[in-house]
Amino acid sequence: MGKTLVQKILSEKLGKEVEAGKIYIFPTDWVFAQDGTGPLAIKVFRELQIEKAFNPSRVVFFLDHASPPPRSELANSHKLIREFCGKIGCLIGEEGDGVCHQIMVEKYSAPGQIIVGADSHTCTSGALSAFATGMGSTDIGVAIALGKVWMKVPSSLNIHLEGRLKEKVTAKDVILYLIGALGASGATYKALEFTGEGVKSLSMDDRLTISNMAVECGAKTGLFPSDEITREYLISMGRENDFREISCAVDAPYEKKVDINLEEVEPMVSLPHSVDNVFKVKEVKNLKIDQVFIGTCTGGRLSDFTKAAWILKGKKVKSRLLIAPGSRKIFLEGEKERVWKTLIEAGGILLPPGCGPCVGIHQGVLADGEACLSSANRNFKGRMGNPEGAIYLASPITCAASALTGYLTDPRETDS
Amino acid sequence: MKGKAHKFGDNISTDLIAAGKYFHLRNNLKELAKHVMEDADPEFVKKLTPGDFIVAGENFGCGSSREHAPRIIKIAGVSAVLAKSFARIFFRNSINIGLLLIECNTDGILDGDEIEVNLEKGIVVNTSRNTEIFFIPLPPFMREISESGGLVEYVKKKKTLG
After folding, report:
1. pLDDT over 90 at A415, yes or no
2. pLDDT averaged over chain A?
3. pLDDT (mean) for A239-259
């Protein structure tokens, strides 16, 4: 029997066949942390009393969650991280560079790698066919020192995609639909692997959105095969040499197969306070939206903003509209395309590249009883800094269409 | 291990355990621990006696990778978390820091029940209701990490990860 993508990548790394369900010690290609989890990883690294990082050129710290810092404690965390990076000689993503997962795919992640990050959305790099998974600060502190992690090899669910998405339906709608179908813990301890003709119709931005949210149904990672789209993406990032083709075997031993016809997917929305609380946008009536947020590692890429700009060009929003590019690179590319001008003229507020208000620290904390429609990945109670606020998740296009009316709106009903 | 059960539902996220609004307290875990579970039950810390148990449904600890969540549960004095299932990052974080997790059917445990955990036998005894719940112990590798006091102690002892 052939191998799943997970088995291919992990067996190759270990130099022997791995079995799903068994625990092994794996070498890491990249190890990273962010400003929320980094200080604790540094503390763990120091407790180990191992002076040097295993391979500092493969360790990255990102200052993205509280960036720029809104209070002294967080500024001190940034200082601590900078000093540590200087001392051990590892890489750093500075304030304003963007969200860790976006910078990973732009600069570092490549097919066939094992990537561990102290952030749950590390699975984003699965779009590039890297076995990328989120861990905690202790795992990351140890991995910085030893270049190793312990992992149980997950079994895989096969998500088979056919057809093409219709106009104004996006990858975000696909992943919300899938999470609604599987449930918030439907893939716990497992991996998602996307296959089928439909995969070829999805751009790298689409794939990144989907892989990013694999963790929202509990998955360890969400892998796409590495193909021509992967090659083109890596070329566009100046990293053609990082490309290699990887795909699962046709007879790979999947635990379960889920078929999705992309033609049939409609705009979806996730209602508070659980990501799997998914409905079609058209089923939810008269929902007033106070704040719309377009950004993050899920929905903060250039194509997300160009879609929003297409809806909002020459119009005025009725909800507060916050926009945060996922990275400095995305900011600069959007600048060339005049995307920010369109969004700001429509009434948007442009935030610096970074996690923005997604994590509840700053830049858009909700008031009691307010509703926020967000292109991000989580709607947990309290996520945006106030347990009395409600978070709804949708695609950037649905976000833009809703900002225009002030109510949750199916974008297919909006002229553009 | 004996203590009172504090019962929660399904999908208790790390945002509910360690809220983002206290992000600035992450380097001060003792302070952060005063707010543990606050957005799930604002009275939790007041009601907790060291040695008590958190008891929950499916997918406990879902969401963010913040290891601060299991750490402050441990610091607050909770002796173990019992749930029907755990989210995987929370699960491995707990093993890595030596917080005891027990995966078992928690339907028969209600808020305030007195329970007793016997790790050797793999049994949770609900003394308030006179019932027993069996659980499968951790695989040997994870148990060794957990019983070492966590991954740092394990690595220091072994001088490597393996």
Report:
1. no
2. 97
3. 96
For the domain A270-413, what is the CATH superfamily, name and number? Aconitase, domain 3 (3.30.499.10)
| Distance from C-alpha of A187 to C-alpha of A193, rounded to nearest angstrom | 11
Does the beta-carbon distance from B26 to A39 stay under 8 Å? yes
CB contact burial A76-96 (16+ within 10 A = b; e otherwise):
ebbebbeebbeebebbbbebe
With a CB cutoff of 8 Å and minimum separation 6, the contacts of B69 are B14, B17, B18, B61, B90, B93
In angstroms, the Cα distances linking A332 to A81, A102, A130, A353, B61 are 26, 14, 26, 10, 37
Task: State how far residue B84 is from chain A, nearest Cα, in angstroms.
Answer: 11
What is the distance between the alpha carbons of residues A235 and A408, in angstroms, rounded to a whole number? 38
Alpha-carbon distance of A306 to A311, in angstroms, equals 9
Among B24, B65, B155, select the one facing A119 at the smallest CB separation: B65
Which residues, at least 6 apart from A40, have a Cβ–Cβ distance to it below 8 Å? Answer: A118, A137, A138, A141, B26, B27, B67, B68, B71
Question: Region B51-68: what's the mean pLDDT?
Answer: 98
User: Residue B162: its pLDDT value, please?
Assistant: 79
Q: Give the integer Cα–Cα distance in Å for A134 and A115.
A: 9
DSSP 8-state assignment for residue A62: E
CA atoms lying within 13 Å on the CB side of residue A214? 33
Q: Are residues B152 and A37, on separate chains, in Cβ contact within 8 Å?
A: no
Mean per-residue pLDDT, B112-140: 96
Whether residues B20 and A361 touch (CB distance < 8 A) is answered with yes
Give A200's pLDDT tier (boundaries 50, 70, 90). very high
Query: Taking phi first (over 0 means left), then psi (-120 to 50 degrees means alpha), and beta for anything else, what does residue A111 get?
Result: beta
**Domains of chain B as residue ranges with CATH:** 2-158 (3.20.19.10)
State what percent of residues in chain A have pLDDT above 70. 100
Between CA A340 and CA A309 the distance in angstroms is 8
Percent of chain A with pLDDT over 90: 99
Q: In this predicted model, what pLDDT tens digit does every residue of A82-141 receive, in sequence order?
A: 999 999 999 999 999 999 999 999 999 999 999 999 999 999 999 999 999 999 999 999
CATH of domain A5-262: 3.30.499.10
* Sequence ranges of chain A with CATH classification 3.30.499.10: 5-262, 270-413
Residue A68: is the preceding peptide bond cis (ω within 30°)? Answer: yes
Angstrom distance (rounded) from CA B162 to CA B158: 8
Most B CBs within 10 Å, among A25, A67, A138, A391, to test the B interface: A138
The C-alpha torsion from B14 through A325 and A411 to A175, rounded to 10°, is -40
Structural contact between residues A218 and A185, judged by C-beta atoms closer than 8 angstroms: yes
DSSP A18-48: --TT-EEEEE-SEEEEETTTHHHHHHHHHHT
C-alpha A374/C-alpha A361 separation (Å) is 16
The closest CB to that of B96, out of A136, A189, A274, belongs to A136
Average pLDDT over residues A371-392: 97
Q: Which of B27, B39, B92 sits opposite A73 (nearest CB)?
A: B27
The model's pLDDT over B87-115, given as tens digits with 9 standing for 90+, comes to 999 999 999 999 999 999 999 999 999 99
